[in-house]
Amino acid sequence: MRRAGLSGVPRVRPWSWQAFLLGFVVVAMSAALQGICVAFGAKLYFAAFLPSIFVVGFVAGAPAAAFTALLTIPVVWWAFMPPFFKFSALSSANADSINLFFLLAVFLIGLADLCRETMRITTSGARKPPGDGTATNPQ
Questions:
Q1: Model's pTM, two decimal places?
Q2: Phi, psi at residue 66, to the nearest 5°?
Q3: In 20-30, which positions are buried (b, 16+ CB within 10 angstroms) versus exposed (e)?
Q4: H-type helices in 1-132, by residue range?
Q5: What is the DSSP letter of 48?
Q6: 73, 102 Cβ separation under 8 angstroms
Q7: SS3 annotation, 88-125
Q8: 9 phi and psi, to 5 degrees?
Q9: Where are the domains of the chain?
Q10: End-to-end CA distance of the chain
Q11: pLDDT in tens, 23-68
């Protein structure tokens, strides 16, 4: 019997240049999507970037997702926070937005890493039978 799952999702080796290139490309695509959202009047600075971080974390691993999150902050600060296309001092609200994004990014990276590891375990069949664990009761 075949398991249903995300076996068709390509995975990139963590710490490879392809993983970091994927992070860079995803930030560029998210910035374009965020620009479209801003053109329609959305004021959520990091809305398009949060799902991207999860996808990069799932496909390419935690290091590339962390790179994506760290690259996102100056992109949003420069392009989407007023004054546009200029680095200026952050207001209290903008600093809070960056802090909240960073917190959510850490949670998403952890969740993506957990999902990636779960997929690795389930597809490789590395699970132990129920009686072979170290925490079993011999009685």
A1: 0.81
A2: -65, -40
A3: bebbeebbeeb
A4: 17-39, 49-60, 62-79, 92-124
A5: T
A6: yes
A7: CCCCHHHHHHHHHHHHHHHHHHHHHHHHHHHHHHHHHC
A8: -75, 120
A9: 17-124
A10: 35
A11: 999 999 999 999 999 999 888 899 999 999 999 999 999 999 999 9
**Can you give the length of the chain in residues?**
139
Q: Distance (Å, rounded) from C-alpha 91 to C-alpha 94? A: 5
Residue matched to tokens 């600060």: 77
| Tokens at 127, concatenated | 């699970």
Identity of the residue numbered 1: M
Q: How far is CA 44 from CA 10, 41, 66, in A?
A: 30, 9, 21
Count of alpha carbons within 13 Å of 44, Cβ hemisphere only? 12
Residue type, 36: I
